[in-house]
């Protein structure tokens, strides 16, 4: 209704309504209503919460709806009081974007990009709240460094399921070393009948990094030869193998191989990496570079953040491409990194150590392509005013490749620091 139209309150645009005569209620009905008590959410027909769920695009909001009371919970789970076909099936959720987790020992939270809302992570065990996430996997799984000495576990944020991981790794000579994980990647969500694996970048002597691999059922991690020279920066599971990338941008793969006797071992794959033309120029700029691997549309991408004075100023994306071998009988495939330019062609990227993802914008209403979301995921703690060690959330944002510009993100208020770990992704 336009301002000043019939029924409006004049120029202020406020509406007034005439009083509506109310039907008269008999004394008997009034007494029955008083005896029944005030109306309750439990009296709402089952189809109402199911219909409301159709308007909730985020899984977290549907969970909150189901928690209002047990009747609504049963309705949205399809086991309500009304039998089919009276009770309609719960509408399917649209594809979910990763949730952003802000760890904290007292009040951990997560942020939904779809609804732009923060939620409390309730009912987490104390040791999980105190743990440091080292990587994320599909289905809500995290790789956690527990508060106990060198204790590690896989933990599911939705179900609370926990799978202990060995506390040490062994080199090819079977010498044990304590496990200190910087980043980790899962091959698949743990489930019955699934042979899942974990690969990690771990601390080594003299400040170096090393690779460690674990397979379900093993009592220790295995560390292959020659990985310390790579100065590893990231690892992902892509096209059936774990892929590591180092500071010199070489890559190496490890994939499971089943031998005739039924044992499974990791087979290594190396490449004849041809350094990109502007690599030396990049290194000479003086920026701190942080590299991430992303699987996208069947191709392997390397995303580099260029950090100046603690802030990410620019991001570039490269694709691993094959090259003609130098020799006909060359033992290693020859590859190089090719710059993609400023177009992601309908994709958006979410960067995180061991858990980066590429998603198609066409599957998500209201989101733009060529966007890269990045976190302040450096494991560099700073002292606080009250003499505690905290992790800062200052260098996180959204990079627009079209405008070649970085913007703060999330736009809403969010925690600015954590007392136990950097932020990470909750993958669905």
UniProtKB/TrEMBL annotation:
<feature type="compositionally biased region" description="Gly residues">
    <location>
        <begin position="1"/>
        <end position="12"/>
    </location>
</feature>
<feature type="compositionally biased region" description="Low complexity">
    <location>
        <begin position="13"/>
        <end position="40"/>
    </location>
</feature>
<protein>
    <recommendedName>
        <fullName>KIB1-4 beta-propeller domain-containing protein</fullName>
    </recommendedName>
</protein>
<dbReference type="Pfam" id="PF03478">
    <property type="entry name" value="Beta-prop_KIB1-4"/>
</dbReference>
<feature type="domain" description="KIB1-4 beta-propeller">
    <location>
        <begin position="110"/>
        <end position="391"/>
    </location>
</feature>
<dbReference type="InterPro" id="IPR005174">
    <property type="entry name" value="KIB1-4_b-propeller"/>
</dbReference>
<feature type="region of interest" description="Disordered">
    <location>
        <begin position="1"/>
        <end position="40"/>
    </location>
</feature>
């Amino acid at each position: 209704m336009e301002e000043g139209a019939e029924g409006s309150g004049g120029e202020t645009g406020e509406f007034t309504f005439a009083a509506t005569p109310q039907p008269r209620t008999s004394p008997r009905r009034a007494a029955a209503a008083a005896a029944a008590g005030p109306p309750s959410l439990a009296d709402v027909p089952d189809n109402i919460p199911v219909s409301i769920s159709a308007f909730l695009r985020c899984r977290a909001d549907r969970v909150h709806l189901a928690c209002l009371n047990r009747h609504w919970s049963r309705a949205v789970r399809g086991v309500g009081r009304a039998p089919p076909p009276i009770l309609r099936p719960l509408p399917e959720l649209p594809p979910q974007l990763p949730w952003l987790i802000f760890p904290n020992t007292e009040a951990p939270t997560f942020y939904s990009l779809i609804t732009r809302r923060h939620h409390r992570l309730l009912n987490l065990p104390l040791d999980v709240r105190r743990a440091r996430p080292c990587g994320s996997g599909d289905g809500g799984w995290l790789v956690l460094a527990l508060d106990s000495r060198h204790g590690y576990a896989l933990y599911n944020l939705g179900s609370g399921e926990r799978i202990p991981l060995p506390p040490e790794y062994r080199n090819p000579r079977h010498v044990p070393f304590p496990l200190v994980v910087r980043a980790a990647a899962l091959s698949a969500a743990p489930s019955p009948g699934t042979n899942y694996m974990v690969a990690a970048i771990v601390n080594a002597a003299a400040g170096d990094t090393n690779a460690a691999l674990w397979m379900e059922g093993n009592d220790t991690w295995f560390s292959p030869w020659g990985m310390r020279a790579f100065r590893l920066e990231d690892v992902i599971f892509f096209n059936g193998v774990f892929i590591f990338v180092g500071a010199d941008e070489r890559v190496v793969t490890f994939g499971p191989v089943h031998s005739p006797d039924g044992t499974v071992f990791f087979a290594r794959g190396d490449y004849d990496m041809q350094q990109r033309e502007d690599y030396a120029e990049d290194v000479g700029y003086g920026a701190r570079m942080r590299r991430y691997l992303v699987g996208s549309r069947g191709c392997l991408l390397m995303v580099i953040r260029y950090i100046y004075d603690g802030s990410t100023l620019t991001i570039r994306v490269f694709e691993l491409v094959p090259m003609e071998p130098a020799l006909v009988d060359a033992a290693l495939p020859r590859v190089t990194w090719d710059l993609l330019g400023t177009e992601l062609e309908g994709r958006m990227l979410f960067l995180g150590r061991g858990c980066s993802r590429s998603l198609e914008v066409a599957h998500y209403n209201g989101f733009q392509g060529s966007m890269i979301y990045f976190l302040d995921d450096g494991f560099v703690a700073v002292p606080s005013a009250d003499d505690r060690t905290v992790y800062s959330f200052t260098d996180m944002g959204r990079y627009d490749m079209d405008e070649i510009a970085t913007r703060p993100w999330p736009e809403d208020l969010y925690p600015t620091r954590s007392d136990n770990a950097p932020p990470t992704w909750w993958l669905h």
